[in-house]
TrEMBL record:
<dbReference type="InterPro" id="IPR027417">
    <property type="entry name" value="P-loop_NTPase"/>
</dbReference>
<dbReference type="InterPro" id="IPR036028">
    <property type="entry name" value="SH3-like_dom_sf"/>
</dbReference>
<dbReference type="Pfam" id="PF00625">
    <property type="entry name" value="Guanylate_kin"/>
</dbReference>
<dbReference type="InterPro" id="IPR001478">
    <property type="entry name" value="PDZ"/>
</dbReference>
<dbReference type="InterPro" id="IPR008144">
    <property type="entry name" value="Guanylate_kin-like_dom"/>
</dbReference>
<dbReference type="InterPro" id="IPR036034">
    <property type="entry name" value="PDZ_sf"/>
</dbReference>
<dbReference type="InterPro" id="IPR014775">
    <property type="entry name" value="L27_C"/>
</dbReference>
<dbReference type="InterPro" id="IPR004172">
    <property type="entry name" value="L27_dom"/>
</dbReference>
<dbReference type="Pfam" id="PF02828">
    <property type="entry name" value="L27"/>
</dbReference>
<dbReference type="InterPro" id="IPR020590">
    <property type="entry name" value="Guanylate_kinase_CS"/>
</dbReference>
<dbReference type="InterPro" id="IPR036892">
    <property type="entry name" value="L27_dom_sf"/>
</dbReference>
<protein>
    <submittedName>
        <fullName>Uncharacterized protein</fullName>
    </submittedName>
</protein>
<dbReference type="Pfam" id="PF00595">
    <property type="entry name" value="PDZ"/>
</dbReference>
<dbReference type="InterPro" id="IPR001452">
    <property type="entry name" value="SH3_domain"/>
</dbReference>
<comment type="similarity">
    <text>Belongs to the MAGUK family.</text>
</comment>
<dbReference type="InterPro" id="IPR035600">
    <property type="entry name" value="MPP4_SH3"/>
</dbReference>
<keyword id="KW-0728">SH3 domain</keyword>
């Protein structure tokens, strides 16, 4: 504050300045809550006292002195100047140390006097806007017409207008929650505008009225006929996860682009108004203090999506396509000794990688996941905290091949195998001599495997050399029933399948760092391909990783609860560990259907 700056002229050491600044800060806040401010200052000072800051002990004693306390209790007016002079007088009674003398000299200095007196003059001025006088021709029936004056203050009005389809009247279409009009409590949706700033609006187009409003500075005066049956708001606030991006400025259909709320998929929105069938009002939970904005309603988005869907040329859906799976375990049985489950994962990932180059995708138990994403532009969510007695939430890692999903999962499990475990996969291939049923795999017949697929018990599965491999929901359930945290990795297409009330998965996207960073960090890393167990990362592998990550985020980002950039392996491992614990122990947004229903997914 300016007072602080003045102080700097007078006190030599920084410590002295700091302690006196605290004192001046107190004086500057004298108008309201004096005792409260004093308490805060004393708390602050007591901390400094412990650290033995020079001069602070004296100030602490001074502010705690009974005479000053008593004065502060009775003094509530905002008159710093006269108040400080009472303090100066009272300081005479305080022990006359060098600091007190200095303080008294400072407070009596002419330019500080002038400054404080200026403060008081400004503080006592009334800065409320002067409203124009009411017009003479106000009808007798004051209910019939209302005059509303709003002061714009460089912020939008927070209301939209429209022409009534039948009467042609210009009416308030909606009042934006938290905006200027809403806070005034004077404008309501349905109010009929008669005049704006003295200009009759009859016969004008809404755009012309908006123009008048846009050009108005300071006070705007509306003459309006209030809506007769004002809707009683009985709406409950709803929270949703956006399943798509939305850019109001690019939406020609939005009634007022400036009033739109842009959002990205995955963001949680608080819906505060659903009165309009097509345009809801919402805030982001990350910024609840902001005024609401317009977003397309579920109904409107679905309609748009349907239009978009039908305008696309027919494309057989990727999820419905079959794929070939290769299995490195069958090619390199030596890997088994390293880590069975990790090896399995590699095999699955290799299969996926191979199928991707063939422009095919793996099988997931996909209940037309992409169709359902289209069908639900918003997903209702609630805050959920797992009860300590409940089963742990399933942890799903998703990421492009080679990014380090396997390495991070392996490290997590190795850090505490009693707490973390992965799910044992199923296969129809023959058990090898060194393998044990239920340790490396669950060995089942083709018929059993297919039954599991048909009865939707597989999260993900594939075929290689006539054998089927897959991760079952039963295997996940087994780990969870043991009280452990089950950590699996999944192709993103499988996410929808795993998102059930029972598993309540927490999905972590492992994202590659920039190619230039990976060139450094992956110097000694080895990638496993169909043909090479230990191949150095080539430039195209890094590029493929980056491209694949972008596609995953674009298509499935709305499902990611957490994104971890795997740059430094140690840091990424630590982030993963804390994310996994957060998922179990802290409240998270989850689909409302997981909590509200025991029968639905
Ligand atoms: N942050 C990192 N820094 C350096 N090396 C890493 C990092 N993350 C992973 N690696 C190394 O990169 C290689 C590939 O990692 P990993 O096998 O975990 O990838 P992946 O995502 O599971 O893909 P894939 O399924 O193809 O194996 C391994 O040698 C691993 O040790």
């Amino acid at each position: 504050s300016p007072v602080t700056l003045v102080l700097y002229d007078y006190f030599g050491t920084k410590k002295q300045r700091d302690s006196l600044c605290l004192c001046l800060a107190l004086f500057c806040f004298l108008g309201s809550g004096v005792s409260h401010v004093l308490t805060l200052v004393l708390q602050e000072l007591s901390l400094l006292c412990k650290r033995d800051v020079n001069g602070v002990g004296m100030l602490y004693d001074l502010l705690r002195s009974r005479w000053l306390q008593a004065l502060l209790k009775v003094k509530t007016s905002l008159c710093v100047f006269s108040y400080i002079y009472q303090v100066v007088e009272l300081l005479r009674e305080a022990p006359q140390s060098a600091e007190i003398k200095e303080l008294r000299r400072l407070l009596r200095a002419p330019h500080l006097k002038a400054l404080l007196s200026a403060h008081d003059t400004v503080a006592q001025k009334d800065f409320e806007p002067t409203l124009p006088p009411l017009p003479d021709n106000i009808p007798d029936n004051e209910e019939a017409m209302r005059i509303v004056c709003l002061v714009k203050n460089n912020q939008p009005l927070g209301a939209t207008i429209k022409r009534h389809e039948i009467t042609g009247d210009i009416t308030v279409a909606r009042v934006i929650h938290g905006g200027l009009a809403d806070r005034s409590g004077l404008l309501y949706a349905g109010d009929k505008l008669v005049e704006v700033n003295g200009v009759p609006v009859e016969g004008l187009e809404p755009e012309q009225v908006i123009n008048i409003l846009a050009l108005s500075q300071g006070t705007i005066m509306f003459k309006l006929i209030p809506v007769s049956d004002r809707p009683v708001s009985n709406q409950t606030t709803l929270y949703v996860r956006a399943m798509a991006d939305y850019w109001p400025l690019q939406d020609p259909a939005i009634p007022c682009a400036d009033a739109g709320l842009p959002f990205k998929k995955g963001e949680i929105l608080q819906i505060v108004d659903q009165n309009d069938v097509f345009w809801w009002q919402a805030r982001k939970v990350s910024d609840l203090s902001a005024c609401a904005g317009l977003i397309p309603s579920n109904h409107l988005l679905k309609r748009k999506q349907r239009e978009f869907w039908w305008s696309q040329p027919f494309q057989p859906h990727l999820c419905l396509k079959s794929s070939m799976f290769a299995c490195i375990l069958d090619v390199f049985p030596g890997l088994m000794s390293l880590s069975i489950t990790a090896g399995f994962r590699r095999s699955m990932r290799l299969c996926r990688r191979k199928s991707r180059t063939n422009q095919q995708s793996c099988y997931t138990r996909c209940p037309s996941s992409c169709y359902s994403a289209l069908a639900a532009p918003y997903e209702e969510v609630v805050r959920y905290q797992r009860h300590p007695a409940d089963r742990n939430r399933l942890i799903i890692l998703v990421g492009p091949a080679g990014v380090g999903v396997n390495e991070l999962r392996r490290r997590l499990i190795a850090s505490n195998p009693r707490e973390f475990s992965s799910a044992i996969p199923h296969t129809t291939r023959v058990q090898k001599s060194y393998e044990m049923n239920g340790r490396e795999y669950h060995y089942v017949s083709k018929e059993t495997f297919e039954n599991m697929v048909y009865s939707h018990r597989m999260l993900e599965y594939g075929e290689y050399k006539g054998y089927l491999y897959g991760t079952s929901i039963d295997a996940v359930r087994t780990v969870l029933d043991e009280g452990k945290i089950c950590v699996i990795d999944l192709e993103p297409q499988g996410i929808q399948v795993a998102r059930t009330h029972e598993l309540k998965p927490y999905i972590i996207f492992i994202k590659p760092s920039s190619i230039s960073c990976m060139r450094q960090t992956r110097k000694n890393a080895r990638i496993i391909t169909d043909y090479y167990v230990n191949m150095k990362f080539k430039e195209e592998d890094l590029q493929e990783m980056e491209d694949s990550a972008k596609k995953m985020e674009a298509q499935f980002g709305q499902f990611f609860d957490q994104v971890i950039v795997n740059d430094n392996l140690q840091e990424a491992s630590e982030q993963l560990l804390s994310a996994v614990h957060r998922a179990q122990d802290e409240p998270q947004w989850v689909p409302a259907i997981w909590i509200c229903s025991n029968t639905q997914p």
